[in-house]
Amino acid sequence: MTSVAERAQEIVSNYKGKEGVLIHVLQDIQGEFGYLPEEAVRVVSEELGISLAEIYGVASFYSRFYFVPRGKTIVRVCRGTACHVRGSGRVLGKLEEGLGLKSGETSPDLKFTLETVNCVGCCALAPVVVVNEKPQTVLNPDKVIATLKRSGNGGQD
Amino acid sequence: MEPVTIFLNGREVNGRPGMTILELAQQEGVYIPTLCHEPQLVSPGAACPSIGACRICIVEEERTGALLTACTVFITPGMEISTDSPRVLERRRSIIELMLASHPDSCLVCDKGNRCQLRRIAAELGVGRLGFQKVPQTATIKENNPFIKRDLSKCILCAKCIRVCQDLVVEGAVDYFRRGFATRPATFGDGPLEESECTFCGTCVALCPTGALMEAEPAYRGTTANVIRTTCPFCGCGCGLYVEVKDGRVVRTIPDKEDPVTRGTLCVKGSYGYDFIYSPDRLTAPLVKVDGEFREVSWDEALSLIAGEFNRIKAEHGGESLAVFGSSKCTNEENYLLQQFARCVLGTNNIDNGSRLYGAAGLHGSPETGGFFSTNSPLTALEEAEVILVIGADPTASAPLVGYAIKRTARCREAKLILVDPRETRLSLFAELQLRPRVGTDLALLNGLCKVVLDEDLADESVDREAADFAAFAESLAPYTPSHIEEVTGVSHQELRHAARLFAGAKRAAIVYGNGITQQVNGTGALKALSNLVLLTGNRAAVYALQKESNSQGACDMGALPDFLPGYYPVTDREARRRFRDYWGSLPGTPGLTFPETLREAKAGRIKGLYIVGEDPVSSFPDAGYVREALSAVGFLVVQDLFLTETAKLASVVLPAAGFAEKDGTFTNFEGRVNRLRKAVEPPGQSLPDWQILLHLAASMGHPLPYTSPREVREEIEKLVPLYAGIGYGTLEEPAPESGAPERGAGEAAVYRKHPGGTPRLAPVLNGAGPPKPHEAYPFVLLTGSNLYHFGGGTRTSRAPRLRKFSAAAYVSISEADARRLAVSEGDRVRIVSPAGEAAAVVKTTDTLPEGLVFMPFAIAVNPVSQLFSIVLDPERKSLLNKAVNVRIERIGSDG
């Protein structure tokens, strides 16, 4: 058994015998690995007696469960109305170009994930980019790209 | 209960409480369109009979103006329901228009054609031009299997495929994926079906209301008008299905939704394996071998040749020099005629049937048990069990319908499954507890369970502890202590105790066993030990003895056995013989030879004439060389089959027989259910149904049998065989007239033949010969078993193009540890050598096997696994023991 499967087994064992625990288990697994590795999901399926497709169905319903590995730094470009009006489309374009990623992609070295969100609820700051849960106004995307690339890990100034 | 009165379209009608509006409307003959409603998907006891996903069944409550989904709302007194008010029709049109807005405009070329329910309802509602902008859905997924093709752009999200996969078949290969507009049914990882758990049972394809799920390689793309209800010809489950006929050819099979056992499910063989009847290999004329070459002849010529030879042999050498081998794939009527032919025309009890190979033929007759612990309940009773013990069987492969029932009961009704199997199978995921004994130690394990039940005082009150046989029994168990069991079987004493407590604690238990017991060394003892366990726990378990073939049960019931007349009257019983003599004339009174014994006698030159109907022992029996030699030594061999099988190639005369869709008759499935087989199409060329050939042959021999149809045979069976009396067997309805669409069919009531009686008693069973001992030269134990996509020796499935395409190569499963030790990896070719022979196969590595155990299923195109066995009989039941053998594995490769 690999370490992923073993760790998944440990996580599931905390919930065994309880009803309605699937989402908690998936959250814990994502907390551990940053996404839902197939190997871990197979363990969950066997241990909880829930079919793989059903787990996939539940997880895919929620946009914050991921089936592919995620970058260390997650860059979310807000595409809500206010940000849109303030030019978030162009911000996204610049970031895509600068990071060499399309929206929704993760860099092969697992450093960055670029994605869009529909509104982060701080429209006064528009156009907003959230870098690892920290929202910031981005008037100059090039500067953000430079900062991201320089720090490479945290991505915060 | 007080009926509930409501107004339906202004008319006062009564329904029973708990009925939905839809059910009441259907009862009253009022039409409400439905798309997602499917009565057989409702698990009994569910709060609501439907899920209301499609909304097309909306009706109006006139008092409040509320629009209700008829399929999910229960009737309440005083309701005033309108099913066709302008408002209802307007809303239904909008619903259909919204569905069509994301549906491709491909009706003209869609294979679903007139079978499309979406199109039908749209037409009924007069939906014309769409008022909505079209937003196409995602397109086809690339699949690489010959069975099912998905085009999810046509999906209307009715969820039938998801529900049937999760609740009825319990594979759970698909579920809703994503949400909102992006929702669709998908497999894990949204990949192709062949990479998922899908077993291609085809149930979802049969239920899909649109063209989203379709046959990948359909024989015909249009709609057929001619649909005939018949029975699947493969395993012992005996699934009810409809065959669709176009221009005299079967082009499709559809599961029968109304059938109480089948419930609208089939397996891959029933859905996509029927087309072996159109193999170009079909025999179309009688063949006679002249100078080693087959020559086509007329029926008259073939029959007079056979009649002349059989009569001559009988006159010169006596009836005992003739033998007949009947088929567990032929109908009850045919087996009845065949044994009558053997006994009265040929004058011999040397008759046996193909289920000898799988042990079914040996299950009958132990005096005190009324047969060796055979099936005693209909399959529907399985789903009421609290504990299910599955031993020596992988029904998910060998009897899929039973597999579905077990999985349903374990998953949906939370029954506890105790699985006894050295391998991990699909059922392991559903098991509360799996015991993995060493191969061939089932008897010890079962005795160990009995011992725990006694020692922990779990035995039922009904067990008479004062009786003399109880003391003897209890004493016989003394050596089977948990620590001894742990040593012998490898099952820990904790697990043993856990299993015994679970089983003994159940008020209703069920036992399912299969060839893992009947073909195993000590199998007879294991069956007796199982019987003891049931008696001890007093839970009157429902017992299911799985049968390999469609009519294994019926062939035995009909007396195609050397020691029993129809209905299990011993041939030695003078009274019973008299009963039959009044109808048939004189019949011999000494038990005949089983087929393996016939082979032995043939090899010694004592069998001069042999008539084999619908069996291919050269391919299916162990030790093909021996079988070939024995059959070659028979002076005059007649083989009757669909194909020129390996056995037929040895024959002097080969007779062409009709396939399952080409004749009438009945099959009796493993639970004793009598199923109708109906003629849907004409047999090819000059081939004839087996029963007709038999009647012609008997007449040619100067001993005509007084029947002209299967019905007349049934009427006599009803009179002479008490198991089949009083169930309406003789007058089972005649072939249904060409009927309409199966979804409107009334289905067929299940008819069960009676179960043979018998009072089992507690009896000591001691270990006989031990399991195969590990041997230095043969360090592995090889287990054989069924494969979902293959059947028996593969005579038919290898000629079903789609089954063959999907899975043809012989493989051997090896545990990862053993594979490392042997330095082989997935896909390598290996040679497997047993003391009896050798076979080649491709390696599949797996984590489902313990070290030292390898698994090799019967394979579709060639059946090499039988080469590894020699013919060994269980002394008591005279069944073949070919479940496990010691082997060594050698790599075939670069370095030789």
Mean pLDDT of chain A: 90
Strands in their spatial order, largest beta sheet of chain B: 14-13-26-25-24-15-16
Query: Which value, in Å, is the CA radius of gyration of chain B?
Result: 29 Å
Helix content of chain A: 40-55%
List low-pLDDT spans of chain A.
Answer: none
Structural class of chain A: alpha+beta
Oligomer: heterodimer
Which CATH architecture of the largest domain in chain A?
Answer: 3-Layer(aba) Sandwich
CATH secondary-structure class of the largest domain in chain A:
Alpha Beta
**Unreliably modeled segments of chain B:** 737-745
Total of DSSP H or I helical runs spanning 4+ residues of chain A: 7
Name the overall outline of chain A.
elongated
Q: Under the CATH scheme, which class of the domain at 309-364 and 551-724 in chain B?
A: Alpha Beta
What is the compact description of this entry?
Chain A has 157 residues and is of the alpha+beta class. Chain A has 7 helices and 4 strands, in the order H-H-H-H-E-H-H-E-E-E-H.
3D architecture notes:
The complex is a heterodimer of chains A (157) and B (896). Chain A has 157 residues and is of the alpha+beta class. Chain A contains seven helices and four strands; from the N terminus they run ααααβααβββα. A four-stranded mixed beta sheet of chain A has the order 2-1-3-4, covered by helices on one side. In chain A, α2 packs antiparallel against α3 (38-48). Chain B is α/β, with parallel strands linked by helices and 896 residues long. Among the domains of chain B are: 4-84, Ubiquitin-like (UB roll), CATH 3.10.20.740; 309-364 and 551-724, Rossmann fold (3-Layer(aba) Sandwich), CATH 3.40.50.740; 368-545, Dimethylsulfoxide Reductase, domain 2; 780-891, Barwin-like endoglucanases (Beta Barrel), CATH 2.40.40.20. Chain B has 25 helices and 35 strands. In chain B, the strands form nine sheets. Chain B has a seven-stranded mixed beta sheet with strand order 14-13-26-25-24-15-16. In chain B, β32 (829-833) and β33 (838-846) form a beta hairpin. Chain B is globular and about 85 Å long. Classes of the chains: A alpha+beta (157), B alpha/beta (896). Chain A binds chain B through residues 38, 41, 46, 49-57, 60-61, 67, and chain B through 165-166, 171-179, 186-190, 196-197, 411, 429-430.
